[in-house]
Amino acid sequence: PVTQTGNIFMGTGVAVERITRQYNAFVEANLRNSNSDLTSQEPMVNYANRVVDIMGGETMSLNSALDQFFSSARDVSTDPASTVLRSSFVRDAQGVADRFGQLSAQLDSIQEETSQAMQGQVDQINSLSKQVAMVNSQLTKQRTADAQPPGLLDQRDQLLRELSNLAHVNTKFELNGTVTVSLGPSINQDVVVLGNKSVEIGANFNSASPEKVALVLDPYGKPLALSGPTSGSLSGLMTFREQVLGSSRAAVDNLAKNFAAAVNEVHLGGIDGYGNPAVALFAFDPTASSAAGGMHVAFDDPMRVSAAAQFRVIEKDTNTSGSDATLVYDPASAPVRSTPDGQMLVPADDVSKV
Predict the structure, then answer these.
(1) Which end of the chain is more exposed for a tag (fewer CB within 10 A), N or C?
(2) pTM for this one?
(3) Distance between CA 237 and CA 113 in Å, rounded?
(4) Angle 40-102-266 (CA atoms, 0-180°, nearest 5)?
(5) Residue 298 in contact with residue 283, Cβ under 8 Å?
(6) Residue where a domain stops, chosen among 232, 251, 270
(7) Between the CA of residue 285 and those of 59, 104, 257, 297, what are the distances in Å?
(8) What contacts 185, CB < 8 A, 6 or more positions away?
């Protein structure tokens, strides 16, 4: 209402009849689902890019270490008597093993980082679930949602959006605005909020397969296995660990074992600088958490490098020549030893002297 004073009309104030909260349940549910789908991609992309950088980066790449190793192998084959070249070969062989170990350590670092991130997100889910239960407790004071304070309903929706960023949630709203929250495929499975009560979840890391994680409902009461979130950042972390981190670690370990097996096969076929049958060049620490992380050169003595092949002189029936074979060697640089059957073992570079 207004009052007139002369030719001037003056208002006497405003009377507020009611405040209506503008809310669309369908739009809000779509927003939560979209948030879950979007946030599930972020950890997958970020951590996958880091794995690619580790594998392909110049500082961690195997290419340079392998090139140096094979270059040293060629050098020592041209001059097996050189202690310097033998030492360089052992050093570069250990360089390859160290590079495998560095790759494994970097993957271990990402594994530990994602483990901490997952535990942190599990804690956030538990905290948000408790807050939703507390809001539900306050909403029970009214019979209908229209009678609820708008600020309290806004707080409920904000908490649900934050939950959906971490994991896909199913919701069921009662007439008074209270909400039931489930992390499972249906509203009746894996319920974390029911009325004014919340149930915690936990993460169990598999020591045998560290990249695998199992989520558990009520870990400190009656634990039940969660079916696992289908979206949200927690789902993205779990997918990355199982599909990217696990396969990358397996690939590095397999490459380390196959490379070592191939090199050892060649190395075992010769004799060392002492004239003894060679031993394996590479070995693996059985106590290491991964094959690549436990790879190392089996010896430090450069004279144990297999840089010569076994040489045998065998009389042949079809040989009509009356000349005898003569073996000439330098005892100081080309040790020779006889085997029990009378054969002579000589470094490969001295074969030309026969």
Answers:
(1) N
(2) 0.77
(3) 10
(4) 120
(5) yes
(6) 251
(7) 24, 14, 12, 10
(8) 170, 227, 230
